[in-house]
Amino acid sequence: MKVKFLTIALTLTTMVACQNTHDKTPASSGEGQKTSEKPPAESPAAQKANDKNPAVLGKWRGREWIFMGKPSGMDATQVNFEFKEDGTFKANFAEQQKSGTWRTMKDSLFTMEPGKKEVPIRLLKADGTALDFEMDIKGNKEIIRFKKQ
């Protein structure tokens, strides 16, 4: 079980560490618009394309861990994340701790530990009260559901 968590934590951390600072998708180019005007309203999916999705911010505790569509047997409450406005995160699972940077792009969360590659995680849900991650680890789908602390 700890090996799975380490794999997930390293994946999350790697995602944060490899963040490309030039990988930003602006809502519009601004060409032909006044700077005081707001861009047109966008769908929820398009809003997630902006880095630093505000629904991800805060402290999160695991509530359910699913492996290949079934309960994993892992204690999800031992998985904790904190995503800060400054683009940094902290994660822990039992005694293991990770930290680095994070960003979002559409329905993906990317984390990266210093000196490591960026790790992508699919966001199944991010609404400010619940956060659901889907990871593909060696062809096995894992979902961890979090609740806001």
Return the CATH class. Answer: Mainly Beta
The low-pLDDT segments are: 9-50
Radius of gyration: 16 Å
CATH-scheme architecture: Beta Barrel
Tell me the strand percentage band. 35-45%
Largest sheet: 8 strands, antiparallel, barrel
How far apart are the termini?
24 Å
**What value does the average pLDDT take?**
76
Figure out the total of helices: 2
Count of structural domains? 1
Helix share bin: 10-25%
**CATH fold-type name:** Lipocalin
Q: Output the helix-strand order.
A: HHEEEEEEEEE
Overall shape: it is globular
The counted number of beta strands is 9
Query: What structural category do the secondary elements indicate?
Result: mainly beta
Sum this structure up briefly:
With 149 residues, the chain is mostly beta strands. Helix content is 14%, strand content 42%. It has a single domain (2-20, 44-148), classed as Lipocalin (Beta Barrel).
General description of the model:
By secondary structure, the chain is mainly beta. The protein has a single domain (2-20, 44-148), classed as Lipocalin (Beta Barrel). Helix content is 14%, strand content 42%. The protein is built from two helices and nine strands. The protein has helices spanning 2-17, 44-48, and strands at 58-67, 70-71, 79-83, 88-93, 96-105, 108-112, 119-126, 130-137, 140-148. Strand 3 and strand 4 form a beta hairpin. The longest helix has 16 residues, at 2-17. It is globular and about 35 Å long. Mean pLDDT is 76; it is low at 9-50.
